[in-house]
Fold these 2 entries.
Entry 1:
Amino acid sequence: MSDEEVAWQRLSPRLIPVHLSWLVAPVVTGAGTLIGTGGKVNLQALITLVSFTIAFAIVAGVNLMRFLTTGYRITDQRLELRSGLLFRSRRSIPLDRIRSADITARPLYRVFGLASVSIGAAAHGGSANRKLSLDGVPRAQAAELRQDLLNRRAALLADPGTAAGFDESAPIAELQRSWLRYAPLTIWGVGGLFAVLGISYRTLHEMQIDPLKLGIVHDLVHAFTSVPLWLGILALLLAVAALGTLGAVGLYIEGWSGFRLEREDGGILRVRRGLLIHRSVSIEERRLRGIELVEPMLLRWGGGARLHAIASGLGSAEENRTRGALMPPAPRAEVLRVAADVLGEQESPTGLAPLRPHPRAALRRRINRGLMVTALATALFAVPAIWLPGGWRTGFLTTAGITAAVLLPAVSLLAMDAYRTLGHGMSGGYLIARSGTFAHRTVALRREGVIGLTVSRSFFQRRAGLLTLTATTAAGSGGYHVRDLATEEGLAFAEEAVPGLLTPFLERHN
Amino acid sequence: MLVVGALYLLIPPARFVFGWIFLAVALPGIAYMAVMPLWRYRVHRWETTDQAVYTATGWLWQKWRVAPLSRIQTVDTVRGPLEQLFGLSGIKVTTASASGDLKIRGIDHRKALDVVEHLTQATQATPGDAT
């Protein structure tokens, strides 16, 4: 079969309604405004509406044009994609360079039975990645395409035994309903809540509606001002916490419904998850360099943890975060079991030998950092007090005092905890490093995956006789730190981790 | 500094403001120029062996970087106008890691060519994609 004989295939025509749906938003807002204002639209609102419509029409048009001009085909040797109207581009990837084929299905795509396949490939020589995206193929075809691509790749890699279809054995991990109890512990802060409030306020304001005059808001403000201040603040805090919890649970369900981690033939780990947006991520085991165990404060107190893969070829830092996730927040023991299974070990390397502690100077650095934060926060109130008149001054000084009194024990505890968390070690073929203040992170990195070492010492570290050792790798964030080691010990550890690499550049004093 | 100085000279009514801004910019700038280059010159070192490339850089924050030759992917030379004027050259060695670039700045141009030659050959001699 020569390259010319394979016909070009198109994306699904069902994309047309999907793209046209961009026009729904301006039509609905237009109608809403007309109804809301009783048909008397003023000039400002009109201009806003028209520019809104034009912008969305352009997006829809560009998408439609892309649909019309995109074609793809798979030949014996390569995957080819052509697209573009003004700038015609034709891209091809040799099948044996394909590293991953991920399937994503956004809600609207799923309504029309569509999915996107994004294919990652290694550019010549390593880390740089190229991505092709077939945006909008029928869902069944997407799954077929993915399997087909991975099969052909396995076949081309001259490993005939691995080219056969699915491995029907039990998955490594599946979502348990009881894990949902960890969801409230993943509150990511109230920042998102305020962003949502801000955006809705602005939108309403643009449409000439003053949110403060709306009935519900008015009642709320009235209720807040009619009760004592402390009760109001308490109620507000509770409301924010409740909304945050609700949001966290919602995100958990959206992100992790139907979660399934399995090992497929051809040495591929496959993660499938998502409620509204279906995601399917494939990670080649060959590209796996280690794992990262993440324990944010709340989750840790609840006995839970998350798991990330450290693998090359996952893409940018952002993609590494989303695509590298191997386990949802789940019981720590379960996460450790999965970590061991994924790495092909008996037990997770992160849990084996007790890690070596770091010198006391590291504790002093952490306490100093905490004191700095406390001093700055206190100064924020204490310094303006100098110029303020009597009554105000007392108020500000009291606030400064309270800030210091609250922060001091808090930062001391955090510093102690951060110091106790610090640890490093070697376990079998893995380099282990643990650190973290709010979220504890334990990294287990395969030693043969370390492709360089960096020793960095800030001014204060040099005075304290400390150094930070960074193992650079082609995977994940590119470098993993072992923070605040004693100088001698750190260099010895570096030599132990990658024997011979540092040796020619060291001088021994004894 | 030049911009603020020019503004000081050109807009007499605002001399008071620009005078102070000029001082606020100039004093730290001069202190920086007096300290940083010498300090950096004392710290910066580099070495290549048959196994690895080594660099030491920085002043307040100092870094020692090592990369084995077997993991090197590309070797570039970088010469800015000033470096050309002084017959200097810079070398950038990249590995497969997102945070693993080694930079050797300001070494003799002919020396740099030799180093690049040496590193390129060592890199070609290694099979695999260096990850």
Entry 2:
Amino acid sequence: MRQIFNALLKYKNTSLFLGLLFISLLILNQRSFYHKSVFSEIGLGISSNFYGVSKGVSEYLNLRKTNVDLVKENNKLKALELIYFQNQVLKQKTLDTFDFEVLSTKIIKNSFNKANNYLIINKGYEDGVTNDMGVISADGIIGIINQVQAHHSSVISILHQDIKVNVSFKKNGAYGTLSWPGIHPKKMSLDDISTINSISVGDTIVTGGMSAYFPFGIPIGVVSKFVQPKTEGYYQIEVDLFSNLTQKEFAYVIKNKNLDEIKKLTSDVSN
Amino acid sequence: MFQTNTKSFLQFTFLILLQAFLLNNVNLFGFLNPYIYLLFFITYRFDNNPTLLILIGFVMGFLLDLLSQGAGGHMIASLAIAFLRPYIIQFSFGVNSDISTGMLRGTSLSNRLLYLALMVFIHHLILFIVVYFNLKSISVIFKYTFFTTIFSFILLWISLSFFKTRHD
């Protein structure tokens, strides 16, 4: 006891200083929000480190249970993976059952300033291209294949007065025939739309499903103006193409897998 | 003894009021305030009770913080300088540290300058560390400490010469 007193007396200045310093820090903590936040930050750092250590220990002790849980989770994920693979197969089947096949190609020669225009593409029968396939671009249709070589094919452009494409209105499905009057490479004329359908400027025109060349629904252009006849009958419609056929480099050949069947049916019916 | 205590008490009160109401508003170059209340710790007789000085330092700093809306910088800094003072005296004056009025007479000029500089620098360093209380502000702390130390040092040296003539 005496020794403790002696020690206290010996270090009385130091202990007094430390005690007062502690009180000072308490007062500092009370008086200043900034210092309070710094103190609490330090406290948080210390306690989080401490918790980190204890957490590490408890994690190590729980490894067996964690392993069991992980195995369970793996089983579940494996089942999900199998389902996913099955769906992949189904997707592949959907692709396979789609009636059209797509083949990308490059346009080598393009014409648009004649009355009847043709294009040449760099895919031929060795690539699976045959006559009467449709050719489309990223933003519209281009034409129909009419001659096939080993590595090249010629395409009748839709800017050709003999070609007529089955199209329909996107909004109500009214269908007609698109043809080129031979004047401007972006203006087409649309015939055979009955006046019982209401139309307006700006309506979108898409490919119709009646054609064996193109799948249904490829956007082609918009109605730019139309003339309504005084009596009942058919509109005279002018269509602005989306695609600029004077600036095309790449195209896709579309192969209808059922083309032979359709052709056979058509010839059977007409006979 | 009574006279000495009264003198100390008056000095204590005067220095606090001077510091809180005049010198804390100097703002030389926008940020420099001299801390003249250190004069109390510097001129405190070397043979007086150091434990009492620690208590006085704590109270003085606390009052200064109250008067100048400080958080606690003066409190901790003056407490620390009161605690460290015997060691600084030992270091600065060496064998002459038993001369009780060593700061005023009887010691060499270089010793006195070293003592004063150490007292001022350590006090200001602790003060700014507590005020900024952030490792990222270390450059600001040293900048303020450096310039304020120079300013306080000059003013304290001038004040000490007044003491000297009055005592002589």
